[in-house]
Protein: Heme NO-binding domain-containing protein
Organism: Hydrogenophaga bisanensis
Amino acid sequence: MKGVVFTEFMEMVEDHFSLRMVDEIIEEAAVPSGGAYTAVGTYPHEEMVALVTALSRRSGMPLPDLLYAFGRHLFGRFARLYPRFVEGQTDTLRFLAGIEDIIHAEVLKLYPDAQLPRFDVEHQDEHRLVLVYRSPRHMPELALGLIEGCIDHFGQSVTVRSNPVDNGDQRSVRFELLRHA
Ligand code: HEM
């Protein structure tokens, strides 16, 4: 997983909890990297899972809630760190419909070793977008947080529903977004 995700996570923990909490979760998670993340580095995805799990234990907040809150925070950070992805964009549904072929495709050019999820567009019209999320890392709560963060960013009235999709051994989640005029 890209270092930028780790550095943003650590900053969020520091801001919302404390620097002490950062040290405590690094110690509790016993991550091989020792917690010295740089934005340009790449670290095992398991380290993120270990850190979020440690934060959940220490803070008493459920793991899914933490992943969701992190995703919601992360979108705002991504919009600042990579302004060219959001510049000139005004429509939440149109932006999110391009997550696979435009946004993450560009991310892959920046970081050829990025491990990105898949977002297939199952339906798209002016008021409704259906996205299907699939990832070997399976972090639908993070995805929902990023979607909600994106909705916050564009400030339109959009609601999201998420439902697990039963398709055998590959877990996926369907996100249905509705825009209210
Ligand atoms: C400006 C917008 C965005 C940028 C620059 C961006 C960039 C990235 C980067 C750098 C990663 C880490 C890849 C790795 O660790 O190897 C990532 C992961 C991820 N992104 Fe995005 N992203 C953006 C918007 C979104 C949005 C709106 C969603 C949700 C629809 C999303 C869903 C995800 C998810 C769920 C992951 C975690 C990896 C996984 O599930 O396999 N991203 N993204």
Remarks:
- The chain has a mean pLDDT of 96.
